[in-house]
Amino acid sequence: MTNEAMSPLRRRMIEDMTIRKLAPKTQQGYIRTIRDFAAFLGRSPDTARFEDVRRFQLHLAANGAHVPILNHAVAALRFFFRVTLRRSDIIEHTTFIHEPRKLPIVLSPEEVARLLDAAPGLKYKAALSVAYGAGLRAAEVISLKVGDIDSKRMVIRVEQGKGRKDRYVMLSPHLLELLRAWWRAARPQGWLFPGRDLRHSFATHLLEQNIDIRVIQVLLGHAQLDTTALYTRVATKTIREVMSPLERIARKVERAEPPA
Fold first, then answer.
1. Do residues 96 and 71 touch, judged by C-beta distance below 8 A?
2. Spatial CA neighbour of 49 closest among 90, 82, 85
3. DSSP string across 182-223
4. Long-range Cβ pairs for the range 161-167 (8 Å, 24+)
5. pLDDT digits 0-9 by tens, 101-126
6. DSSP-assigned letter for residue 157
7. Residue 209, Cα to own-chain centre: how many angstroms?
8. How far is CA 30 from the centre of its chain?
9. Model's pTM, two decimal places?
10. CA atoms lying within 13 Å on the CB side of residue 245
11. Which residues are 191's β-sheet partners?
């Protein structure tokens, strides 16, 4: 499929997702799925029929795609055909796969206490205590800011948690004292637990060391090279070392000029 054929279609889909306030990560995933679908078809996806969608799903399953990936593909295809193309008949019989729910592993209070005592340092003990003491997800813990701890009302503000929803959770006196001890020791500014961007720094610094971007892709576990390529936008050392074509022209002119 040519870029000329895709450009207006992709633009319209992005507009449709923007109107509906889909998260940037969701938008990127949907666009990637439709691009893969087009590559599978070998033509523009707006020419697809139901049988093409079915073959694509079978292709994903046969190549070992896990249930979350299959469900993500269904969501992207449904949005594309129902919203962007207004062809609901194409995805009428596409269904999500429901995995059997497994019971979670529950630690005893004694096991939790041993886990917290074994934490390697105050930072990790505080972070694990927030997760257990307030019922936060790992992503919610690392996204906490110092200002989210409200000692007056004894609550913690969780901003844009799962489902992009804000909520408040309880702040126990013991947890507050532990967080205060961590703050006195590290004086974090902004993020309560700094270090959340180390993965991004890792990738950017490797890129600035001229490590092949495909090697970085493997190290980060990215399925698509496009995801890894985003780091080229922030690799300032790499950008700074690129010679401008204007500089090359100027040097040629200087060499061509006769000596005075």
1. yes
2. 90
3. HHHHH---SBSS--TTHHHHHHHHHHHTT--HHHHHHHHT-S
4. 161/137, 162/137, 164/23
5. 777 778 888 988 998 899 888 998 99
6. E
7. 24
8. 13
9. 0.54
10. 0
11. 145
Would you say residue 3 has pLDDT above 70? no
Kindly tell me if the per-residue pLDDT of 83 is higher than 90.
yes
- Which one-letter DSSP state was computed for residue 82? I
Q: How many CB atoms lie within 10 A of CB 27?
A: 18
Q: Which of 138, 158, 140 is nearest to 148 (CA)?
A: 158
* Structure tokens that stand for 212 in this block: 């092949």
- Strands (E) in the chain, as ranges, are 149-150, 155-158, 167-170
How many CB atoms are closer than 10 A to CB 99?
10
Say how far apart CA 159 and CA 167 lie, in whole Å.
7
pLDDT beyond 90 at 236: no
CA distance 22 to 31: 12
Give the integer Cα–Cα distance in Å for 75 and 231: 27
